[in-house]
Amino acid sequence: MIETAIQLHVLVVDDNQINRLLISKVLSRWGITMEFAENGEQAVEKIESDHNIDVVLMDVHMPVMDGVEATRIVRSKDESFYKNLPIIALTASMLISEINEIHECGMNDYILKPFDPKGLYDKLAKYQKVS
Questions:
Q1: Less crowded by CB within 10 Å, the N or C end of the chain?
Q2: CA distance to 25, 56, 61, per residue, from 106 (Å)
Q3: Average pLDDT across the chain, whole number
Q4: Residue 74 has what pLDDT?
Q5: Is 26 exposed, middle or buried, given 0-12, 13-18 or 19+ CB atoms closer than 10 A?
Q6: Crossing angle of helices 67-76 and 40-49, rounded to 10°
Q7: Nearest-CA neighbor of 88 among 71, 65, 100?
Q8: What are the CA-CA distances from residue 124 to residues 12, 64, 76, 115 (Å)?
Q9: How far, in Å, CA of 82 to CA of 15, rounded?
Q10: Domains of the chain, earliest start first
Q11: Is residue 90 packed enough to be buried (19+ CB in 10 Å), middle (13-18) or exposed (0-12)?
């Protein structure tokens, strides 16, 4: 597969600096612009202040506020931007209970860590902006 550029602005939410760095390297290779948050509270603030975010990559387990709680807050807002914003969970767990919780809180999809770049590419390409 030849990976072509993806026109997206992604919010990467992960408390681990190394994970943020790895994701940043992969996303920038595809021409994706991005910004970062280190916990769910920062993520909610960024989503509220920047409606140019196209996709959120949300770590599930973080200090301060986890990804599930942050997603519930985003989804509880009335405007369609908050209801329709694609949120993809980043998780190291394959537990059925956690996967159910990811979908129950309103996340659209999930990707396992350590992530497979091709799998991430395929998931993000679905949300590409058509110019």
A1: C
A2: 27, 12, 16
A3: 93
A4: 98
A5: middle
A6: 30
A7: 71
A8: 12, 27, 24, 13
A9: 22
A10: 9-125 (3.40.50.2300)
A11: buried
Residue 2 has pLDDT above 60, yes or no: no
Cα–Cα nearest to 67, from 21, 108, 116, 127: 108
Q: Please state the pTM of the whole predicted model.
A: 0.94
Question: Could you write out the DSSP letters of every residue in 102-131?
Answer: HHHTT--EEEESSPPHHHHHHHHHTTPPP-
Q: What is the DSSP letter of 81?
A: H
Distance CA 118, CA 115 (A): 9
pLDDT at 73 over 90: yes
CA proximity to 39, closest of 10, 19, 6, 61: 61
φ/ψ (deg, to 5) at 114: -65, 140
N- to C-terminal Cα separation, the chain: 23
Mean pLDDT across 58-64: 95
Helix (H, G, I), strand (E, B) or coil at 85: coil
